[in-house]
Protein backbone atom coordinates (compact mmCIF):
# COMPACT_ATOMS: atom_id res chain seq x y z
CA UNK A 1 0.00 0.00 0.00
CA UNK A 2 1.17 3.50 -0.58
CA UNK A 3 0.03 7.06 -0.68
CA UNK A 4 1.47 9.18 -3.46
CA UNK A 5 1.30 12.91 -3.67
CA UNK A 6 0.22 14.90 -6.70
CA UNK A 7 1.04 18.15 -4.98
CA UNK A 8 4.24 19.01 -3.11
CA UNK A 9 4.11 19.14 0.64
CA UNK A 10 0.97 17.04 1.17
CA UNK A 11 2.41 14.82 3.85
CA UNK A 12 5.66 16.68 4.45
CA UNK A 13 5.42 16.88 8.22
CA UNK A 14 9.10 17.70 8.48
CA UNK A 15 8.49 21.03 6.80
CA UNK A 16 4.94 21.59 7.98
CA UNK A 17 3.85 21.41 4.36
CA UNK A 18 5.94 24.46 3.49
CA UNK A 19 9.04 23.63 1.43
CA UNK A 20 11.89 26.08 1.63
CA UNK A 21 12.20 28.56 -1.25
CA UNK A 22 15.31 28.62 -3.43
CA UNK A 23 18.44 29.26 -1.33
CA UNK A 24 18.72 33.01 -0.74
CA UNK A 25 22.00 34.92 -0.86
CA UNK A 26 23.93 34.20 2.35
CA UNK A 27 22.83 36.68 5.03
CA UNK A 28 25.32 38.54 7.20
CA UNK A 29 26.77 36.41 9.99
CA UNK A 30 24.42 36.15 12.94
CA UNK A 31 25.90 36.95 16.30
CA UNK A 32 24.82 35.01 19.33
CA UNK A 33 21.87 36.60 21.07
CA UNK A 34 21.84 37.02 24.84
CA UNK A 35 19.31 34.81 26.56
CA UNK A 36 16.14 36.44 27.83
CA UNK A 37 16.01 36.69 31.61
CA UNK A 38 12.95 37.01 33.78
CA UNK A 39 12.91 40.27 35.72
CA UNK A 40 12.38 39.93 39.47
CA UNK A 41 11.94 36.14 39.29
CA UNK A 42 14.61 33.60 40.18
CA UNK A 43 15.81 31.61 37.16
CA UNK A 44 15.37 28.30 38.97
CA UNK A 45 12.55 29.43 41.26
CA UNK A 46 10.34 26.42 40.46
CA UNK A 47 12.54 24.16 38.41
CA UNK A 48 13.72 21.82 41.12
CA UNK A 49 12.91 18.14 41.24
CA UNK A 50 9.44 17.56 42.62
CA UNK A 51 8.23 21.13 42.05
CA UNK A 52 4.68 21.40 40.77
CA UNK A 53 3.71 22.65 37.34
CA UNK A 54 0.65 24.81 38.00
CA UNK A 55 -0.40 25.12 34.36
CA UNK A 56 -0.05 21.41 33.77
CA UNK A 57 -1.16 20.16 37.16
CA UNK A 58 1.61 17.55 37.28
CA UNK A 59 5.09 17.35 38.80
CA UNK A 60 7.93 18.58 36.65
CA UNK A 61 10.22 15.90 35.24
CA UNK A 62 13.98 15.64 35.56
CA UNK A 63 14.17 14.65 31.88
CA UNK A 64 12.05 16.91 29.71
CA UNK A 65 11.48 15.37 26.34
CA UNK A 66 9.27 16.44 23.45
CA UNK A 67 6.78 13.80 24.59
CA UNK A 68 6.76 15.38 28.04
CA UNK A 69 6.06 18.76 26.45
CA UNK A 70 3.10 17.34 24.55
CA UNK A 71 1.69 15.91 27.79
CA UNK A 72 1.84 19.41 29.29
CA UNK A 73 0.05 20.74 26.20
CA UNK A 74 -2.68 18.11 26.61
CA UNK A 75 -3.39 19.40 30.07
CA UNK A 76 -3.28 23.03 29.00
CA UNK A 77 -5.93 22.44 26.33
CA UNK A 78 -7.96 19.94 28.34
CA UNK A 79 -10.37 22.47 29.77
CA UNK A 80 -13.37 24.35 28.52
CA UNK A 81 -12.77 27.27 26.15
CA UNK A 82 -13.02 30.93 27.04
CA UNK A 83 -15.96 32.40 25.14
CA UNK A 84 -14.66 35.98 25.22
CA UNK A 85 -10.86 35.74 25.04
CA UNK A 86 -9.81 39.33 25.80
CA UNK A 87 -6.12 38.47 25.70
CA UNK A 88 -4.65 41.87 24.96
CA UNK A 89 -4.25 43.45 28.40
CA UNK A 90 -3.32 40.19 30.09
CA UNK A 91 -0.72 39.45 27.41
CA UNK A 92 0.79 42.91 27.85
CA UNK A 93 1.21 42.17 31.55
CA UNK A 94 2.85 38.82 30.79
CA UNK A 95 5.27 40.52 28.38
CA UNK A 96 6.17 43.09 31.02
CA UNK A 97 6.65 40.56 33.82
CA UNK A 98 8.60 38.16 31.59
CA UNK A 99 10.93 40.94 30.55
CA UNK A 100 10.13 40.40 26.87
CA UNK A 101 10.09 44.10 25.92
CA UNK A 102 13.61 43.86 24.40
CA UNK A 103 12.38 41.06 22.10
CA UNK A 104 9.62 43.29 20.77
CA UNK A 105 12.13 46.09 20.23
CA UNK A 106 14.67 43.97 18.35
CA UNK A 107 12.54 41.80 16.07
CA UNK A 108 10.70 43.36 13.13
CA UNK A 109 7.09 42.20 12.89
CA UNK A 110 4.53 41.70 10.13
CA UNK A 111 1.00 41.29 11.55
CA UNK A 112 -1.67 39.43 9.54
CA UNK A 113 -5.42 39.45 10.25
CA UNK A 114 -8.48 38.55 8.18
CA UNK A 115 -11.09 35.86 7.72
CA UNK A 116 -9.92 34.05 4.60
CA UNK A 117 -6.34 33.30 3.66
CA UNK A 118 -4.51 34.86 6.58
CA UNK A 119 -2.49 31.69 7.14
CA UNK A 120 -1.66 31.39 3.45
CA UNK A 121 -0.77 35.09 3.25
CA UNK A 122 1.46 34.73 6.30
CA UNK A 123 3.27 31.78 4.73
CA UNK A 124 3.78 33.61 1.41
CA UNK A 125 5.12 36.65 3.28
CA UNK A 126 7.55 34.56 5.31
CA UNK A 127 8.80 32.67 2.24
CA UNK A 128 9.41 35.89 0.31
CA UNK A 129 11.23 37.52 3.23
CA UNK A 130 13.44 34.46 3.55
CA UNK A 131 14.25 34.69 -0.14
CA UNK A 132 15.27 38.32 0.41
CA UNK A 133 17.91 37.13 2.89
CA UNK A 134 16.22 37.62 6.26
CA UNK A 135 16.11 35.04 9.01
CA UNK A 136 12.34 34.63 9.36
CA UNK A 137 10.02 33.31 12.03
CA UNK A 138 6.44 32.34 11.21
CA UNK A 139 3.73 32.05 13.85
CA UNK A 140 0.40 30.55 12.69
CA UNK A 141 -2.50 28.56 14.09
CA UNK A 142 -3.93 26.04 14.34
CA UNK A 143 -1.51 23.22 13.60
CA UNK A 144 -2.50 20.14 11.62
CA UNK A 145 -0.48 17.29 13.08
CA UNK A 146 2.39 18.76 15.10
CA UNK A 147 2.48 21.66 17.57
CA UNK A 148 5.83 22.76 16.11
CA UNK A 149 4.03 23.84 12.94
CA UNK A 150 2.90 26.95 14.80
CA UNK A 151 6.45 28.24 15.26
CA UNK A 152 8.54 27.83 12.12
CA UNK A 153 12.06 29.16 11.45
CA UNK A 154 13.07 29.77 7.83
CA UNK A 155 10.36 27.43 6.58
CA UNK A 156 11.41 24.49 8.73
CA UNK A 157 10.35 22.92 12.00
CA UNK A 158 12.72 22.84 14.94
CA UNK A 159 13.89 19.36 15.83
CA UNK A 160 12.02 17.80 18.75
CA UNK A 161 14.89 18.08 21.23
CA UNK A 162 15.47 21.77 20.53
CA UNK A 163 11.76 22.54 20.71
CA UNK A 164 11.43 20.67 24.02
CA UNK A 165 14.42 22.55 25.44
CA UNK A 166 12.89 25.93 24.58
CA UNK A 167 9.44 24.78 25.71
CA UNK A 168 10.53 23.88 29.23
CA UNK A 169 12.87 26.85 29.57
CA UNK A 170 9.95 29.12 28.84
CA UNK A 171 7.49 27.08 30.91
CA UNK A 172 9.65 27.59 33.99
CA UNK A 173 9.65 31.34 33.44
CA UNK A 174 5.93 31.40 32.73
CA UNK A 175 4.95 29.38 35.78
CA UNK A 176 7.30 31.28 38.08
CA UNK A 177 5.05 34.30 37.62
CA UNK A 178 2.34 32.48 39.56
CA UNK A 179 4.34 32.98 42.73
CA UNK A 180 5.17 36.64 42.12
CA UNK A 181 2.09 38.10 40.41
CA UNK A 182 -1.34 37.41 41.86
CA UNK A 183 -3.07 38.95 38.81
CA UNK A 184 -1.50 36.36 36.50
CA UNK A 185 -1.95 33.47 38.92
CA UNK A 186 -5.55 32.86 37.78
CA UNK A 187 -4.57 32.58 34.08
CA UNK A 188 -1.66 30.26 34.77
CA UNK A 189 -3.58 28.01 37.14
CA UNK A 190 -6.76 27.83 35.01
CA UNK A 191 -5.82 26.67 31.51
CA UNK A 192 -8.22 27.20 28.61
CA UNK A 193 -7.94 27.48 24.86
CA UNK A 194 -7.53 31.24 25.05
CA UNK A 195 -4.82 30.98 27.73
CA UNK A 196 -3.13 28.20 25.75
CA UNK A 197 -3.00 30.40 22.66
CA UNK A 198 -1.38 33.16 24.69
CA UNK A 199 1.14 30.67 26.07
CA UNK A 200 2.10 29.46 22.58
CA UNK A 201 2.32 33.04 21.30
CA UNK A 202 4.70 34.02 24.12
CA UNK A 203 6.65 30.78 23.64
CA UNK A 204 7.07 31.67 19.97
CA UNK A 205 8.52 35.06 20.89
CA UNK A 206 10.97 33.29 23.19
CA UNK A 207 11.94 30.81 20.46
CA UNK A 208 12.36 33.55 17.87
CA UNK A 209 14.72 35.38 20.23
CA UNK A 210 16.81 32.32 20.97
CA UNK A 211 17.06 31.51 17.25
CA UNK A 212 18.09 35.05 16.27
CA UNK A 213 15.06 35.71 14.05
CA UNK A 214 15.21 39.09 12.30
CA UNK A 215 11.63 39.34 10.98
CA UNK A 216 8.62 37.51 12.42
CA UNK A 217 5.33 37.09 10.57
CA UNK A 218 2.55 36.77 13.14
CA UNK A 219 -0.92 35.50 12.26
CA UNK A 220 -3.79 36.71 14.45
CA UNK A 221 -5.64 34.04 16.41
CA UNK A 222 -9.17 35.48 16.51
CA UNK A 223 -10.23 38.95 15.40
CA UNK A 224 -7.38 41.37 15.96
CA UNK A 225 -8.18 44.25 18.32
CA UNK A 226 -8.03 42.26 21.57
CA UNK A 227 -6.01 39.31 20.26
CA UNK A 228 -2.80 38.45 22.13
CA UNK A 229 -0.77 39.05 18.97
CA UNK A 230 -1.84 42.70 18.89
CA UNK A 231 0.77 43.41 21.56
CA UNK A 232 3.52 43.34 18.93
CA UNK A 233 4.82 46.64 17.51
CA UNK A 234 4.23 45.72 13.88
CA UNK A 235 6.19 47.35 11.08
CA UNK A 236 3.65 46.28 8.45
CA UNK A 237 0.13 44.92 8.81
CA UNK A 238 -2.07 42.93 6.43
CA UNK A 239 -5.83 42.40 6.45
CA UNK A 240 -6.96 39.68 4.08
CA UNK A 241 -10.47 39.14 2.72
CA UNK A 242 -13.18 39.46 5.39
CA UNK A 243 -16.24 37.34 6.04
CA UNK A 244 -18.44 35.90 8.78
CA UNK A 245 -16.51 33.93 11.39
CA UNK A 246 -16.32 33.63 15.20
CA UNK A 247 -19.50 35.68 15.41
CA UNK A 248 -20.05 34.76 19.06
CA UNK A 249 -16.88 36.78 19.82
CA UNK A 250 -16.50 39.32 17.02
CA UNK A 251 -20.09 40.39 16.44
CA UNK A 252 -23.16 39.53 14.40
CA UNK A 253 -22.65 41.95 11.49
CA UNK A 254 -19.90 42.09 8.92
CA UNK A 255 -19.21 45.68 9.96
CA UNK A 256 -18.61 44.61 13.57
CA UNK A 257 -16.29 41.85 12.42
CA UNK A 258 -14.39 44.26 10.15
CA UNK A 259 -13.97 46.69 13.04
CA UNK A 260 -12.39 43.96 15.19
CA UNK A 261 -10.01 42.98 12.39
CA UNK A 262 -9.13 46.63 11.74
CA UNK A 263 -7.95 46.83 15.34
CA UNK A 264 -4.48 45.65 14.30
CA UNK A 265 -3.85 48.96 12.49
CA UNK A 266 -1.38 51.22 14.26
CA UNK A 267 -0.40 54.85 13.88
CA UNK A 268 2.12 55.37 11.09
CA UNK A 269 2.20 51.65 10.20
CA UNK A 270 1.17 50.85 6.63
CA UNK A 271 -1.65 48.32 6.26
CA UNK A 272 -2.14 46.37 3.04
CA UNK A 273 -5.70 45.08 2.71
CA UNK A 274 -7.63 42.90 0.27
CA UNK A 275 -10.15 44.77 -1.91
CA UNK A 276 -13.05 43.14 -0.01
CA UNK A 277 -15.04 42.24 -3.12
CA UNK A 278 -17.19 39.72 -1.17
CA UNK A 279 -18.28 42.36 1.33
CA UNK A 280 -17.66 45.85 -0.13
CA UNK A 281 -19.26 47.51 2.89
CA UNK A 282 -16.23 46.54 4.98
CA UNK A 283 -14.01 48.90 2.97
CA UNK A 284 -15.66 51.88 4.65
CA UNK A 285 -15.00 50.35 8.08
CA UNK A 286 -11.31 49.81 7.26
CA UNK A 287 -10.92 53.28 5.79
CA UNK A 288 -12.62 54.94 8.77
CA UNK A 289 -10.44 53.09 11.28
CA UNK A 290 -7.27 53.85 9.31
CA UNK A 291 -8.07 57.57 9.46
CA UNK A 292 -8.87 57.33 13.17
CA UNK A 293 -5.52 55.80 14.15
CA UNK A 294 -3.41 57.44 11.43
CA UNK A 295 -2.46 54.27 9.58
CA UNK A 296 -1.70 54.46 5.84
CA UNK A 297 -4.15 52.01 4.21
CA UNK A 298 -3.45 50.45 0.82
CA UNK A 299 -6.36 48.46 -0.61
CA UNK A 300 -5.32 45.93 -3.23
CA UNK A 301 -7.35 47.36 -6.08
CA UNK A 302 -6.62 46.57 -9.71
CA UNK A 303 -4.09 49.34 -10.31
CA UNK A 304 -2.26 49.22 -6.98
CA UNK A 305 0.15 46.47 -7.99
CA UNK A 306 1.10 47.08 -11.64
CA UNK A 307 2.25 43.51 -12.32
CA UNK A 308 -0.01 42.11 -15.01
CA UNK A 309 1.44 38.62 -15.45
CA UNK A 310 1.18 36.49 -12.31
CA UNK A 311 2.81 33.04 -12.04
CA UNK A 312 0.75 29.88 -11.63
CA UNK A 313 0.58 29.10 -7.92
CA UNK A 314 0.90 25.72 -6.23
CA UNK A 315 -2.01 26.66 -3.95
CA UNK A 316 -5.33 26.58 -5.76
CA UNK A 317 -8.27 28.97 -5.67
CA UNK A 318 -8.69 32.53 -6.86
CA UNK A 319 -8.11 33.92 -3.37
CA UNK A 320 -4.56 32.52 -3.36
CA UNK A 321 -3.61 35.04 -6.05
CA UNK A 322 -4.94 37.86 -3.90
CA UNK A 323 -3.14 36.46 -0.84
CA UNK A 324 0.18 36.20 -2.66
CA UNK A 325 -0.11 39.78 -3.94
CA UNK A 326 -0.74 41.09 -0.44
CA UNK A 327 2.26 39.10 0.77
CA UNK A 328 4.48 40.49 -1.98
CA UNK A 329 3.58 44.09 -1.14
CA UNK A 330 4.17 43.53 2.57
CA UNK A 331 7.45 41.65 2.11
CA UNK A 332 8.76 44.25 -0.33
CA UNK A 333 7.82 46.98 2.14
CA UNK A 334 9.92 45.32 4.86
CA UNK A 335 12.80 44.81 2.43
CA UNK A 336 12.50 48.37 1.00
CA UNK A 337 11.86 47.05 -2.52
CA UNK A 338 9.63 49.31 -4.67
CA UNK A 339 6.27 47.64 -5.33
CA UNK A 340 6.23 48.76 -8.96
CA UNK A 341 9.19 46.60 -9.97
CA UNK A 342 8.41 43.46 -12.01
CA UNK A 343 8.73 40.09 -10.31
CA UNK A 344 12.26 38.74 -10.36
CA UNK A 345 13.05 35.06 -10.86
CA UNK A 346 13.48 34.33 -7.14
CA UNK A 347 10.09 35.86 -6.32
CA UNK A 348 8.46 33.90 -9.12
CA UNK A 349 10.02 30.67 -7.89
CA UNK A 350 8.78 31.26 -4.33
CA UNK A 351 5.24 32.00 -5.46
CA UNK A 352 5.15 29.00 -7.80
CA UNK A 353 6.53 26.47 -5.31
CA UNK A 354 5.19 27.60 -1.93
CA UNK A 355 2.64 25.22 -0.40
CA UNK A 356 0.86 25.47 2.92
CA UNK A 357 -0.27 22.58 5.07
CA UNK A 358 -4.01 22.07 4.84
CA UNK A 359 -4.52 24.16 1.71
CA UNK A 360 -5.00 22.61 -1.74
CA UNK A 361 -3.37 19.35 -0.66
CA UNK A 362 -3.70 16.21 -2.79
CA UNK A 363 -2.86 12.59 -1.96
CA UNK A 364 -3.63 9.40 -3.89
CA UNK A 365 -4.06 5.92 -2.39
CA UNK A 366 -2.24 3.69 -4.84
CA UNK A 367 -2.90 0.12 -3.65
CA UNK A 368 -5.82 -0.62 -5.95
CA UNK A 369 -8.35 1.51 -4.10
CA UNK A 370 -7.97 4.16 -6.80
CA UNK A 371 -8.95 6.99 -4.48
CA UNK A 372 -7.60 10.52 -4.48
CA UNK A 373 -7.97 12.85 -1.50
CA UNK A 374 -8.21 16.61 -1.93
CA UNK A 375 -7.82 18.39 1.41
CA UNK A 376 -8.48 22.03 2.27
CA UNK A 377 -9.13 23.51 5.69
CA UNK A 378 -11.59 26.09 4.35
CA UNK A 379 -14.25 26.71 7.00
CA UNK A 380 -16.15 29.90 6.13
CA UNK A 381 -18.86 30.21 3.48
CA UNK A 382 -16.63 32.16 1.13
CA UNK A 383 -13.51 30.03 1.58
CA UNK A 384 -15.48 26.77 1.24
CA UNK A 385 -16.99 28.04 -2.00
CA UNK A 386 -13.55 28.92 -3.37
CA UNK A 387 -12.04 25.59 -2.25
CA UNK A 388 -14.92 23.60 -3.74
CA UNK A 389 -14.45 25.28 -7.09
CA UNK A 390 -10.74 24.41 -6.91
CA UNK A 391 -11.63 20.78 -6.15
CA UNK A 392 -14.07 20.50 -9.04
CA UNK A 393 -11.58 21.99 -11.50
CA UNK A 394 -8.59 19.94 -10.39
CA UNK A 395 -10.44 16.63 -9.99
CA UNK A 396 -11.86 16.95 -13.50
CA UNK A 397 -8.41 17.77 -14.90
CA UNK A 398 -6.70 14.91 -13.03
CA UNK A 399 -9.24 12.29 -14.11
CA UNK A 400 -9.86 13.75 -17.57
CA UNK A 401 -13.49 13.07 -16.81
CA UNK A 402 -15.99 15.93 -16.76
CA UNK A 403 -18.12 13.99 -14.25
CA UNK A 404 -15.89 11.94 -11.95
CA UNK A 405 -17.27 10.18 -8.88
CA UNK A 406 -16.94 12.81 -6.15
CA UNK A 407 -17.46 12.35 -2.40
CA UNK A 408 -17.51 15.13 0.20
CA UNK A 409 -16.15 14.51 3.71
CA UNK A 410 -17.19 17.43 5.87
CA UNK A 411 -17.16 18.74 9.44
CA UNK A 412 -17.97 22.17 10.83
CA UNK A 413 -17.94 23.66 14.31
CA UNK A 414 -19.87 26.67 13.03
CA UNK A 415 -23.54 27.26 12.24
CA UNK A 416 -24.24 24.46 9.74
CA UNK A 417 -27.26 26.18 8.24
CA UNK A 418 -25.10 29.13 7.22
CA UNK A 419 -21.98 27.19 6.22
CA UNK A 420 -23.75 24.54 4.13
CA UNK A 421 -25.07 27.26 1.83
CA UNK A 422 -21.57 27.36 0.33
CA UNK A 423 -22.29 24.07 -1.48
CA UNK A 424 -25.51 25.22 -3.14
CA UNK A 425 -23.97 25.92 -6.58
CA UNK A 426 -21.93 22.70 -6.48
CA UNK A 427 -24.04 20.06 -4.77
CA UNK A 428 -25.02 18.31 -8.00
CA UNK A 429 -21.37 17.36 -8.55
CA UNK A 430 -21.29 15.09 -5.47
CA UNK A 431 -22.71 11.57 -5.26
CA UNK A 432 -22.59 11.46 -1.46
CA UNK A 433 -21.49 13.41 1.60
CA UNK A 434 -19.98 12.02 4.79
CA UNK A 435 -20.66 14.13 7.90
CA UNK A 436 -17.57 13.48 10.02
CA UNK A 437 -16.54 14.04 13.59
CA UNK A 438 -13.07 15.15 14.70
CA UNK A 439 -10.73 13.59 17.21
CA UNK A 440 -10.39 15.73 20.32
CA UNK A 441 -7.48 15.54 22.78
CA UNK A 442 -9.87 16.20 25.64
CA UNK A 443 -11.57 12.87 24.83
CA UNK A 444 -8.33 10.86 24.90
CA UNK A 445 -6.17 12.60 27.49
CA UNK A 446 -5.65 10.49 30.60
CA UNK A 447 -5.95 13.68 32.66
CA UNK A 448 -9.32 14.68 31.26
CA UNK A 449 -12.25 14.98 33.62
CA UNK A 450 -14.78 12.17 32.87
CA UNK A 451 -17.69 14.59 33.05
CA UNK A 452 -15.97 16.96 30.63
CA UNK A 453 -15.24 14.08 28.24
CA UNK A 454 -18.84 12.91 28.30
CA UNK A 455 -20.05 16.44 27.73
CA UNK A 456 -17.74 16.87 24.75
CA UNK A 457 -18.79 13.55 23.21
CA UNK A 458 -22.43 14.56 23.58
CA UNK A 459 -21.71 17.99 22.06
CA UNK A 460 -19.93 16.47 19.04
CA UNK A 461 -22.71 13.95 18.51
CA UNK A 462 -25.34 16.67 18.66
CA UNK A 463 -23.38 18.78 16.17
CA UNK A 464 -23.11 15.82 13.80
CA UNK A 465 -26.86 15.18 14.03
CA UNK A 466 -27.69 18.85 13.47
CA UNK A 467 -25.36 19.12 10.46
CA UNK A 468 -26.83 15.94 8.99
CA UNK A 469 -30.38 17.22 9.42
CA UNK A 470 -29.57 20.52 7.75
CA UNK A 471 -27.85 18.78 4.83
CA UNK A 472 -30.79 16.43 4.28
CA UNK A 473 -33.23 19.33 4.42
CA UNK A 474 -31.23 21.43 1.97
CA UNK A 475 -29.87 18.79 -0.43
CA UNK A 476 -32.15 15.77 -0.45
CA UNK A 477 -30.77 14.53 -3.77
CA UNK A 478 -27.33 13.74 -2.32
CA UNK A 479 -26.86 10.74 -0.03
CA UNK A 480 -25.78 11.83 3.44
CA UNK A 481 -23.86 9.45 5.73
CA UNK A 482 -23.34 10.61 9.34
CA UNK A 483 -20.39 9.18 11.31
CA UNK A 484 -21.04 8.06 14.87
CA UNK A 485 -17.42 8.62 15.93
CA UNK A 486 -14.15 10.09 14.61
CA UNK A 487 -12.24 8.07 12.03
CA UNK A 488 -9.72 5.73 13.68
CA UNK A 489 -8.09 4.51 10.45
CA UNK A 490 -8.08 5.42 6.78
CA UNK A 491 -10.05 2.25 6.06
CA UNK A 492 -13.00 3.81 7.89
CA UNK A 493 -13.15 6.43 5.15
CA UNK A 494 -12.43 4.00 2.33
CA UNK A 495 -15.34 1.81 3.44
CA UNK A 496 -17.69 4.79 3.12
CA UNK A 497 -16.30 5.89 -0.22
CA UNK A 498 -16.64 2.49 -1.91
CA UNK A 499 -20.26 2.34 -3.17
CA UNK A 500 -22.60 -0.29 -1.81
CA UNK A 501 -24.45 -2.56 -4.22
CA UNK A 502 -27.59 -0.50 -3.72
CA UNK A 503 -25.90 2.83 -4.44
CA UNK A 504 -26.62 4.53 -7.71
CA UNK A 505 -22.93 5.12 -8.42
CA UNK A 506 -20.52 4.04 -11.12
CA UNK A 507 -18.01 2.05 -9.08
CA UNK A 508 -15.69 1.77 -12.06
CA UNK A 509 -14.82 5.45 -11.76
CA UNK A 510 -11.98 6.48 -9.44
CA UNK A 511 -13.23 8.17 -6.29
CA UNK A 512 -12.34 11.83 -5.79
CA UNK A 513 -12.71 12.65 -2.08
CA UNK A 514 -12.93 16.30 -1.02
CA UNK A 515 -12.17 16.95 2.68
CA UNK A 516 -13.04 20.40 3.98
CA UNK A 517 -14.80 22.45 6.66
CA UNK A 518 -12.16 22.29 9.38
CA UNK A 519 -8.38 22.28 9.75
CA UNK A 520 -8.89 19.79 12.57
CA UNK A 521 -10.62 17.35 10.21
CA UNK A 522 -7.89 17.82 7.61
CA UNK A 523 -5.26 17.24 10.29
CA UNK A 524 -6.96 14.04 11.42
CA UNK A 525 -7.05 12.63 7.90
CA UNK A 526 -3.46 13.68 7.15
CA UNK A 527 -2.41 11.66 10.21
CA UNK A 528 -4.40 8.65 8.98
CA UNK A 529 -2.83 8.94 5.53
CA UNK A 530 0.63 8.84 7.12
CA UNK A 531 -0.24 5.76 9.16
CA UNK A 532 -1.68 4.06 6.08
CA UNK A 533 1.39 4.93 4.02
CA UNK A 534 3.62 3.42 6.72
CA UNK A 535 1.68 0.16 6.52
CA UNK A 536 -0.55 0.67 9.52
CA UNK A 537 -3.80 -1.25 9.62
CA UNK A 538 -7.14 -0.59 11.24
CA UNK A 539 -7.30 -2.17 14.70
CA UNK A 540 -9.31 -5.39 14.65
Automatic annotation (TrEMBL):
GO molecular function, one term: metal ion binding
Annotated stretches, region: Disordered: 1-63
Pro residues compositional bias, start-end: 19-31
A matching Pfam family: Mur_ligase_M
A biological process term (GO) from this entry: one-carbon metabolic process
Mur ligase central domain sequence ranges: 204-267
Record-linked SUPFAM superfamilies: MurD-like peptide ligases, catalytic domain (SSF53623), MurD-like peptide ligases, peptide-binding domain (SSF53244)
PANTHER family the record matches: FOLYLPOLYGLUTAMATE SYNTHASE, MITOCHONDRIAL, FOLYLPOLYGLUTAMATE SYNTHASE-RELATED
Family: Belongs to the folylpolyglutamate synthase family.
Name of this chain's protein: tetrahydrofolate synthase
